[in-house]
Amino acid sequence: MEIIAKIFNCNYETYKLFYKDAIKKAFLKDKIIINENDIKIQIDNLPGDTIQAQRSPSGRHSRTITVIVDGTPKYIIGFSNTGYDEDRKKESDNGGRQYIYGNSDYHSNSFMCQGINKIFEYYYDTKKYFPNVKLYFYLLDIGKKSYVDNLSNNLTYRELYTIGFEILNIDDIPFREFYKLGFSREEYGFSYEYISFNKFANDLAYISSKNSSNEPAYLKCIDFNYDIDEEGDEDELYDYDFKDLTNTQYIYTFKTLGAQSYDNFLAMWTLNILAEKEDKNLKFEFSKEKFNFRLEQPDENVKWTEDFPDTITRLFEKIGISIKYETSEEVRQQFNRELVQYEKAKRSGKIRNQELFKNNLRAKGLQTKCYLCGCEVEEILEAAHLWGVADIKSSGSSKINKVLDIDCMKNLLIDDAHSGEQFYKKYILVNSGDNGIWLCNNHHELFDRNYYCFNSEDGKVLLKADSDDIFKIYMSLSEYDKLPQNILTECTKVFLNERQKKFNGMEE
Ligand SMILES: [Zn+2]
């Protein structure tokens, strides 16, 4: 058996330290033990200096090693970016181009995702002629001061496993950050794959909300069974919920500016696979909101992203994924849906719009899980109102105006055609994303029956003073004893304060 490792010249200094281990591990996946000294090297030259070649103007990606066995490509191994690029260092040391990245002279970064599309493109191009070729990944910088096990890379690794690709040296990673994604390897039998659509969407939301300069990516849900006329906002305990998810459409909203397109390429591929498994109707939408509901017109301040860059759309074709994009006409229809709902609501006097409320809550980029027990089973998750629907509805106009006059609350109401209407003010308050939290149906029911509340200052759980022991025991079983801090926005504190006043009133 003749084994040739084809390595690109611009990465040779770095990859020569790892190729033997990587190739040995790839063969082991097929239960073949090789003598690493039998591997012959073939250097493939790309034009230009190191950086030009690494950026691969020829269109081939240099971050790969192709393993050729008896003349046929058997494995392609894609490498992560490295912060310890020996090739750039060598070039710098020899008086060549100094590459400035961050604080270092020749470093790049350790993110797996950046440029990963080219690894896939190279793989799918090769596969066309050699259908049995396999793609694996290999991580650099393990054990060094780098980002190799940070949150965003963790997500990438798990995405790769979910779409069906393995990382040869994943077991060498100390996953310090995994627990933050609510992931325990023990729990799922050492699998890195995502086990549910909602779980993955939650991790996406969590990571996206970490980056405060970004509008969070989120999932919007449209339920075609939903009819606002069937809402019953008189009874606080009645709750319309999407128990039947079969007629629900999920719309993932995202951006494709710069490096986000690489992140979203993988996120969309993963969402697509999980949606297919769970038979979910999934669509994608660019940018944030293209229409401002309250202004009833396209929002001039929102940046429109027309499409992915060509490189990514081409790749989706090669992979064979049909990604349905939301067109502007469809967005307009959805916008109309919200307007029609508002008009209907106004006619019937029903101020609760559970679909809008949930989507506003989702738009905050918060995880869809019970904030007490951590439950992520979509069928039993509910969006709970902090300031209750019935309480808002029965409040007089001076009360409503007073709350809306609080500094942070002024943003909720945009001056438009409806802003003078008392009904509109209540509608906005009831359905504001800041007026909601996710709870499982058990915790929601107990919350609405005022068995407990959350402190509006720190989000801590407050139990009813005369609670039964059995209730106290149930509450003590919860994973958390306070709301996550990122939920407690200034507006949420205002809503929660109204809830707490009622809770305290019932205590007296
Ligand atoms: Zn719960």
Main sheet record:
6 strands, mixed
SS class: alpha/beta
**Outline, from the CA principal axes?**
elongated
Mean pLDDT reading: 82
Distance between the amino and carboxyl termini: 84 Å
Strand order of the largest sheet: 2-1-3-4-5-6
Bound molecules: zinc ion
Strand content: 5-15%
* Number of separate helices: 17
Low-confidence stretches: 235-242, 288-295
Quaternary status of these chains? Answer: single chain
Number of domains: 2
- Helix percent reads 25-40%
How many β-strand runs? 15
Which value, in Å, is the CA radius of gyration? 27 Å
Structural account:
- With 508 residues, the protein is α/β, with parallel strands linked by helices.
- It folds into two domains: 3-193, no CATH class; 202-507, no CATH class.
- 36% of the residues lie in helices and 14% in strands.
- The protein contains 17 helices and 15 strands.
- The strands form five sheets. Strands 2-1-3-4-5-6 form a six-stranded mixed β-sheet, sandwiched between helices.
- Strand 8, helix 8 (260-277) and strand 9 (281-286) form a beta-alpha-beta unit.
- Helix 6 (151-163) packs across helix 8 and helix 7 runs antiparallel to helix 8.
- The longest helix is centred in the middle third of the chain and has 21 residues, at 328-348.
- The radius of gyration is 27 Å and the shape is elongated.
- The N and C termini lie far apart (84 Å).
- Residues 235-242 and 288-295 have low confidence and may be disordered.
- Bound molecules: zinc ion (ZN).
